[in-house]
């Protein structure tokens, strides 16, 4: 039997197939999902991993056994599943493990309108029910009659809806390199860009859940090396990279240089605020300080939140925000049921680039204002004490403010840093930003010396 403590995470289900879970487990999750959410209908989609079709079908059968009518949309990106949930106004389940290796798979679940299901919003109850049924040898029959299972292709509808949200009429022709990493971008990008004046240079578009070319995680610099080379080699205007389930999009400029997700957040925020002056924009506390600056300059109201999609989506709903962005290249839109879609962010960038004659690097210079360290991980056994040690050093410094909304955030006159523990590993994650590179390096080195002091002493001993 599956050990659910190993595969049920804070926001989704994820583990190795078949070692940690299999189709039998997926069927129980489908039944439990319907019981807990009381969803009369659900939509189910999956990525290109070898195990995905079987797991998705088993989940659908479990859901139908409890009386839900199931619409299977087959191969799709995660944001396409969110679109289907919103458009059909039904609950949904996406089978993917994003950028994890091929042997992994998982389930991202949502209620009607793409509202997320996490530990505090139903996932804990779903896990409890599945565990009870595993002990009992299976799920009991539902009170409602057996539900139906039908098929529907929603790719064209998804593409048309995205294009309806961004004015791409009149943009100049663009040469665009896209690295899909053998993930779901290879399925969605050709259809979304089909009617645009775009010369598409497709890299690794063959769907292959074994990821033969590189890991489908553009957040790791080594995975966009090929894209950067191709942009330079071909003289392209822009490069785009998608992760395995294509819900995140990373951007490379015409020089082959990565554009920070914070700069994309600021750019898209300014465009969304042009449509809705005075609206709220959400940003997590690790995004560049340029983001709230641009939001205010554009007449909007910035709201700072913790890291994580559940916090972003909750604040989007609470404030009625038009847009939200994270440092990890997740972009959330009110017009997309508050869900994240890298593809829609990419269309905004193409519209902005194609609507003027300058290069992408010239365009984003206004939004990329401050040097930063990027995220630096340190392996530590005692996250709390190391963080407390850093706090003790900076707490008494004149002109410094401290808050603990998410980890430890320390702000000086012309710099700030955030030190945050990982939820799943013995790591502390450090992000530093300042007005100049020298200050970034000074603050970075000062904090890391404290964080890693014990580790270094242990190594010397």
TrEMBL record:
BP GO terms, sorted: carbohydrate metabolic process
InterPro entries: A-D-PHexomutase_a/b/a-I, A-D-PHexomutase_a/b/a-I/II/III, A-D-PHexomutase_a/b/a-II, A-D-PHexomutase_a/b/a-III, A-D-PHexomutase_C, A-D-PHexomutase_C_sf, Alpha-D-phosphohexomutase_SF
Coiled-coil annotated spans: none
Keywords (A to Z) from UniProt: Isomerase, Magnesium, Metal-binding, Phosphoprotein
Domain Alpha-D-phosphohexomutase C-terminal, residue spans: 375-448
Pfam families assigned to the protein according to its UniProt record, in alphabetical order: PGM_PMM_I (PF02878), PGM_PMM_II (PF02879), PGM_PMM_III (PF02880), PGM_PMM_IV (PF00408)
Residues covered by the Alpha-D-phosphohexomutase alpha/beta/alpha domain: 6-132, 157-256, 263-370
Family: Belongs to the phosphohexose mutase family.
Name of the protein in question: Phosphomannomutase/phosphoglucomutase
Species the sequence originates in: Streptomyces reniochalinae
Taxonomic placement: Bacteria, Bacillati, Actinomycetota, Actinomycetes, Kitasatosporales
């Amino acid at each position: 039997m599956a050990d659910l403590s190993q595969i049920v995470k804070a926001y989704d289900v994820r583990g190795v197939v078949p070692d940690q879970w299999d189709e039998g487990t997926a069927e129980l999750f489908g039944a439990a999902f319907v019981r807990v959410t009381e969803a009369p209908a659900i939509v189910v989609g999956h990525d290109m991993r070898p195990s995905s079709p079987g797991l998705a079908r088993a989940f659908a059968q479990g859901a139908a056994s409890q009386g839900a009518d199931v619409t299977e949309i087959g191969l799709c990106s995660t944001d396409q599943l969110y679109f289907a949930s919103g458009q059909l106004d039904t609950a949904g389940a996406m089978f993917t493990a994003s950028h994890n290796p091929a042997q992994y798979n998982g389930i991202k679940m949502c209620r009607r309108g793409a509202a997320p299901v996490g530990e505090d919003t139903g996932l804990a109850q779903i896990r409890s029910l599945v565990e009870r049924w595993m002990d009992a040898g299976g799920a009991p029959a539902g009170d409602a009659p057996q539900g139906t299972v039908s098929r529907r292709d929603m790719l064209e509808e998804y593409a048309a809806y995205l294009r309806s949200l961004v004015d791409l009429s009149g943009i100049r022709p663009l040469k665009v390199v896209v690295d899909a990493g053998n993930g779901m971008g290879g399925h969605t990008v050709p259809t979304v860009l089909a009617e645009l004046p775009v010369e598409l240079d497709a890299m690794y578009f063959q769907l292959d859940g074994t990821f033969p070319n590189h890991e489908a995680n553009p957040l790791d610099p080594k995975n966009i090396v090929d894209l950067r080379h191709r942009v330079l080699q071909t003289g392209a205007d822009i490069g785009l990279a998608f992760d395995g389930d294509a819900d995140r999009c990373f951007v490379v400029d015409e020089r082959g240089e990565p554009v920070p997700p914070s700069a994309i957040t600021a750019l898209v925020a300014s465009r969304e605020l042009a449509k809705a002056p005075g609206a709220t924009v959400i940003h997590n506390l690790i995004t560049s300080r340029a983001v709230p600056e641009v939001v205010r300059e554009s007449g909007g109201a910035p709201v700072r939140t913790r890291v994580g999609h559940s916090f972003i989506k909750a604040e989007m709903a609470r404030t009625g925000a038009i847009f939200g962005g994270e440092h990890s290249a997740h972009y959330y839109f009110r017009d997309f049921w508050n869900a994240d879609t890298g593809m829609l962010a990419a269309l905004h960038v193409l519209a902005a680039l194609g609507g003027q004659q300058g290069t992408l690097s010239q365009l984003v210079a206004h939004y990329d204002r401050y040097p930063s360290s990027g995220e630096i991980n340190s392996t530590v056994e005692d996250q709390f004490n190391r963080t407390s040690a850093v706090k003790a050093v900076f707490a008494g410094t004149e002109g410094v403010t401290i808050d603990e909304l998410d980890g430890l955030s320390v702000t000086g006159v012309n710099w700030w840093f955030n030190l945050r523990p990982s939820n799943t590993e013995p790591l502390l994650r450090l992000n530093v930003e300042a007005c100049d590179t020298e200050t970034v390096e000074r603050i970075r080195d000062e904090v890391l010396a404290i964080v890693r002091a014990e580790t270094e002493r242990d190594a010397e001993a």
